[in-house]
Amino acid sequence: MLNKLKIKAAAAVCILGLFLFGASVPSFAAGVLTIAVSSQSVKAGDTVTVTVYAAGADNADVTADMNVTYDSSKLEYVSSSASNASGGGGSVKASGSSIDIKFKAVGSGDAYVKAEASTMTAAGAHIMVSGSASSDPDSSDPAKSGDNSLSSLTLSAGTLSPAFKGSVTEYSAQVGSDVSEITVTPKTSNAKATVESITGNKDLKEGLNVITVLVKAENGTQASYKINVTKGKTSAAGSAGASDIGADSLAGGENDPADGAQTPVTDGDSIVIDGVSYQISEEFSEDAVPEGFSKADFEYKGKPHKGLVFDSGHLGMYYLVNEAGEGRFFVYDADRDKFYPYVRLSSGEHFIILMVVPNAVIPPDHYEAAQLTIGDVSGISAYQYAGNEDDEIVKDESGSGENISGGTSDFYIFYGMDPSGVSSWYQYDVKQGTYQRFNEEAVGQSNPAEDYESLNKSYQELNDRFKSTKEKDRRLIAVMIFVAVVLVILVINLLLKIREIKNGDDEEEGHKKPAKRPQGTRKKKT
User: Fold this and answer.
1) Which end of the chain is more exposed for a tag (fewer CB within 10 A), N or C?
2) Is-contact 130 108, C-beta < 8 A?
3) Quick one: how far is CA 420 from the chain centroid?
């Protein structure tokens, strides 16, 4: 009996060992996270966007509950593309397959950002921050939020275009001629942020009016939301005067890129542009009206004229005809009293209308004013990447009517307005004739040498971590295999021992069992 108890105890220990062995086998990740940053080197006060991607074992996009940690002494959470995101104080939690997280650099040094998710391989990225943070003592306080975004923005008249989104800071709206004041109701995303001021919403004039909402975060950082409101005409003539069209959005200031725009020389009713005499004509067919434009009554040099106005934005055009009877639409910049040709680029259902740079908008570093030709339109104002100071922009005078590339780069940037009336920088590839929205955050702070050094450093760190983890896994697996073999041998020996003891017990019971009396025998009487 005692032997049986010992054997059962030993068997229980072996089974427990096998169970623990199985539980300790490392489980491999079901997916992987990757991180991309808009710039790996920024200055204090700049913003940087971190994008986290989640992919499954088959490399397909999957939705993951992500936890992104960051150095709050060097980075400050601003906003996220995920509507369910919550962050601040060193971590951001969000769910999705691809999430953009915007940070503001507040302290110098190496800021490490790490993304983690359950059953997925983590990822990290280094962001080098140079310079010092804002002089505002609160702006570098990690305990105070830097969220200066709005969660909602409504108007008492007119509708925002595009629909409100906290990360979009410029909108357009249209109101009737009877509206002289708009009540703007903003709501901050963070309860400790405040709306400092709302300007431009009173005494609205005909044409363009700019309403600005200034938001201040808890730590003092500010953001402004701009609403370009176009007030309708009051009468059939001179209502939305050309002098009001685009007065703010078409002003360029010192960084005026409108070299392609021509100051008209008036000769009676004629307008001379680049040596060619034009007259404003109202004789254009409905088919000639570009999509998104409507006829409107304007006033030029004190005389009423009919032209076109962009339904979603603040652009006005006249139809000008030269002495040969050839006509085309020109956009009128009332602030400069200049005309520039109407150029529209399309990609599928999307399109942009080229315009001059708004006031106070500064081109990215290393871009210089230039001109390019698209199709049969020449002299289009743009900026071209100049590279180093030794690089030179050279104009290619081919006159072929094709897309002309002149200089050190085939890429130009210009300002454009999309179908919703929102304007921003766009990049144009003259070789392929394609355009895309220009990512300003990924340009300007880039240094090839520093980028290579940072990437090489990150690669070496990841490679070292991989080798170290791989070596540890190999050792662990070897130990576990050895333990498993020992446990299997012990179990086999125990089973053989149990069988041997059981056979011995059977034989012992056979010897102790009394012999049976033969049937039919009787006990003798004495």
Assistant:
1) C
2) yes
3) 19
Domain ranges in the chain? 2-27+469-510, 31-145, 150-231, 242-442
Least confident of 33-42, 118-127, 290-299, 380-389: 380-389
Which one-letter DSSP state was computed for residue 315? -
pLDDT, tens digit (0-9, with 9 covering 90-100), for 338-356: 788 888 888 888 888 888 7
Structural tokens at position 110: 């190496």
> Which CATH number does 31-145 carry?
2.60.40.10
**Per-residue pLDDT for 517 more than 60?**
no
Angle, CA 82 vertex, CA 103 and CA 440 arms, to 5°: 45
- Whether 31-145 and 150-231 share one fold: the answer is yes
What is the residue whose two structure tokens read 């990822």? 123
**Three-class SS string for 153-178?**
EEECCCCCECCCCCCCCEEEEEECCC
Instruction: Give the whole-angstrom CA distance, residue 164 versus residue 168.
Output: 7
CA pair distance 97, 120, nearest whole angstrom? 12
Tokens 């004789």 belong to 283
Residue count of the chain = 526
The whole-angstrom separation of Cα 198 and Cα 178 is 21
> pLDDT (tens digit, 9 = 90+) per residue, 128-187?
887 654 444 454 455 677 788 888 999 998 888 878 877 678 888 888 888 999 999 999
Residue 259's SS3 state is: helix
Select from 228, 231, 327, 315 the least CA-distant residue to 271.
Answer: 327
Contacts (Cβ under 8 Å, ≥6 apart) of 306: 282, 295, 296, 297, 298
- Selection from 260, 228, 222 nearest residue 247 by Cα: 228
pLDDT at 55: 85
